[in-house]
Every structure is written in structure tokens, then in C-alpha cells.
Amino acid sequence: MYSTTGLTRDQIVGLCAIIHHSRLPIRRPWPPKLGLFDSVRVAVIYLRRNRAQVELAEEFRVSQSTISRAITAVTPLLAAALSECVPTTDDLDARSTYIVDGTLIPCWSWRAREKELYSGKHRTTGMNLQIACTLSGRLAWVSDPVPGSRHDSYCLRESGILDDYDVTAWMGDKGYIGTGMLTPIRKPKHRDLLDWEKDFNHHHNKKRVIVEHAIANLKTWRILHTDYRRPIDTFATTISAVLGLQFYRQA
Questions:
Q1: Is residue 216 part of a domain?
Q2: 45 belongs to a structural domain
Q3: Considering only CA atoms, which of 55, 52, 42, 33 is closest in space to residue 4?
Q4: Is the pLDDT score of 41 beyond 80?
Q5: Whether 217 contacts 101, CB under 8 Å
Q6: CA 131 to each of CA 124, 159, 170, 182, 212: distance values in angstroms, whole numbers, following the listed order
Q7: Which residues are in the DDE Tnp4 domain (predicted)?
Q8: What is the DSSP annotation of 99-164?
Q9: Orientation of helix 9-20 relative to helix 35-49, angle to 10°
Q10: Are residues 75 and 101 in the same domain?
């Protein structure tokens, strides 16, 4: 089970218990043919592997529409039930140093929202997430999604984190120049970088790679790595569900 969901059987049972004891919008919204346990498995496998629904239908011996109903019903339940597992800006330690970077969560190019979702940097559409990790590489905080056309520094400011914390000891790439964080030194137009400036950038980038590893680990949830295919109005909820699952398994 772990290879397909990223969770142990006990963790899946724990999720079922959390959902069972939560206040549901309607009584048993998941498909009766699957039941709660298999509906949770279907939703988590979909988020973990981003597999085609027809493949899951064959594996669970139900129709594709049943798989779709399970994903539609359980994903928002996971997002709501695990919301307390996801750290907010208030949970960060003001005495700690964090490494910050942005990443694009890709999606289809929906015509109605293509302009705001399109990232010129990545040359595709998606949502921007800001990621903060500790110096040991532990995922510490993830921002709310912002349309992909926005710059990293804008997204970080929108999160409110720059207003709440002294970030002078935090680290980021050149996209965060002007935010107060430690960033690489940009080459001036009129001269080359000095040797000490090159050394600073080298050591800075060597340390900052830690956050890229944290992002890669988060994106083992393939729904965050490959194009999101479901309706755009479900995208933010799906991201919230994945973040809840990631911090749930990390606890």
C-alpha cells in the first residue's frame, strides 16, 4: 500500500477515523460501492500517482464514474480534516533560519484563466507556491496558491510572512532581492563580480539547494508535478489536500 499511496495502512485507517468523526456536509458522500476505506485509498492514490481514472477503475473493479465520485467526495474531506496538520505563518519559529523558494504547480491551459495562470519563467500555466524549509531540509511552511503569472517576491509578500517576521537571516534566490532576505549578489552592469562576491554566491547556492530537495520531495505527490486535469475550481482544494497529507505523514 505504501508504494502507491505514500502512507502505511495504519495511516490510511487513521485518515478514515478522522473523516468518520468529522462533520460531513452530507451523510456518507463517498460511493457506497467502494466504502470509506477504499474511497480514501482511491483519492490518495490519485493524488500520489496522478493515475488515469480508468486505470483505477480497473484496479478496484468499479466504473470510471465511481472513481470520479470517490475523488470528488474525498479530496475536500481530506483538505478539511487535515487542515490542522498544515503549519501556518504563526507556527514558524522567529528564532530560526529558513530557506525559501517558489515552485509552479502546473495545470491545463484553461482558456478563461490562461492569462493569469501563465508563467513566463516556466512557459506553462499553473499555480505558484512559496516553500520554506529548515536548514536540515524539513518542510516547514507552504503558502496558499497564487496564480502562476505572479513573481516569487510578490507571492511571498501576499502571504504576509514578510510583515510578521524578521527575514534578514532567511535565504532565497535572486527572485527575492529587495525582500530583506539573504540572496545571491547580482552582477552589476558596469563590472564583473569580485572574487569574494563569487565565493559568497557559490556558498549561498550550495546551501540553498536544500529547499530544492524539499520541493522535489513534496512533488512526489505527482498531482503537483504533472498537469492538473480536473476542473480549475477544484485545484486549490486539491493542493490543500496534498499539503495536509504531506504534513500528516511527516508528523
A1: yes
A2: yes
A3: 42
A4: yes
A5: no
A6: 20, 11, 12, 16, 9
A7: 100-245
A8: EEEEEEEEB---GGGHHHHEETTTTEEEEEEEEEE-TT--EEEEPPPEETTS-HHHHHHHTTHHHH
A9: 120
A10: no
124 beta partners: 119
pTM over 0.85: yes
Beta bridge partners of 119: 124
CA distance 151 to 154: 5
Whether the CB-CB separation of 41 and 19 falls below 8 Å is answered with no
Which H or E element spans position 18?
Answer: helix 9-20
**Structural contact between residues 158 and 146, judged by C-beta atoms closer than 8 angstroms:** yes
Q: What is the pLDDT of residues 208-226, one digit of tens each?
A: 999 999 999 999 999 999 9
Separation of alpha carbons 30 and 38, rounded Å: 10
**Which residues lie across from 101 on neighbouring strands?**
131
Q: Which residues constitute the domain of residue 66?
A: 2-81
- Residues 63 and 179 placed together within one structural domain of the fold: no
With CA atoms as reference, report the closest residue to 22 among 79, 86, 91. Answer: 79
Cell of 180: 530583506
Q: Are 44 and 245 in contact (CB under 8 A)?
A: yes
Q: 108: which residues sit within 8 A by CB, 6+ positions away?
A: 125, 227, 228, 229, 232
Per the structure, how many domains does the chain have?
Answer: 2
Share of the chain above pLDDT 70, in %: 100
Grid cell of 127 as nine digits: 499555480
pLDDT digits (tens, 9 = 90+) for 64-91: 999 999 999 999 999 999 999 999 999 9
